[in-house]
Amino acid sequence: METVRADKWLWAVRLFKTRGLAAEACASGRVKRGGHPLKAASPLHPGDLLEVPFPDGPGTRVVRVVELIGERVGAPRAQACCADLTPAAVLEARTQARREQPPRREGQQGRPTKHQRRTSDRQRFFE
Q: Tens-of-pLDDT digits for all 127 residues of the chain?
């Protein structure tokens, strides 16, 4: 395999959870190669240096393409296909930002349970 699409490789090495998210990041111009935005269909070559945004918050990671893969593989092999060159200062800033976020309260997670829903219905309709 000489080249592979950028979105496919980003998804295969687990930098994004889905290929659609990887393509969206490319389309918005947030994934860069050599300072220039990378399109989702752009071919990647071994040795390319990419700037990839973290999907869950601020900051940009720097990744070198070591090996090309076009399909999702096990985590150890996926990690071997890319070299993370992100500066330690960026990783430390992300860790600090996570510590400063307020913790989620137990009752504010996702959909309400059946018990919570019935309690709120009783309060809403019978008061």
A: 688 999 999 999 999 999 999 999 999 999 999 999 999 999 999 999 999 998 777 789 999 999 999 899 999 999 999 999 999 998 888 888 888 877 766 666 778 889 988 988 888 877 6
By the 10 Å C-beta count (0-12 exposed, 13-18 middle, 19+ buried), 12 is classed as buried
Residue at 72: amino acid letter: R
Structure tokens at 47: 């040795």
**Would you list the domain boundaries of the chain?**
1-89
- Within 46-100, strands assigned E span 49-53, 60-65, 82-84
- Cα separation of 112 and 108, whole Å? 8
pTM of the predicted protein model:
0.76
Instruction: Give dist(CA 67, CA 3) in Å, integer.
Output: 10
Element containing residue 99 per DSSP (H, E): helix 88-100
Tokens linked to 39: 């399109």
Q: Looking at the domain 1-89, which fold is it? A: 3.10.290
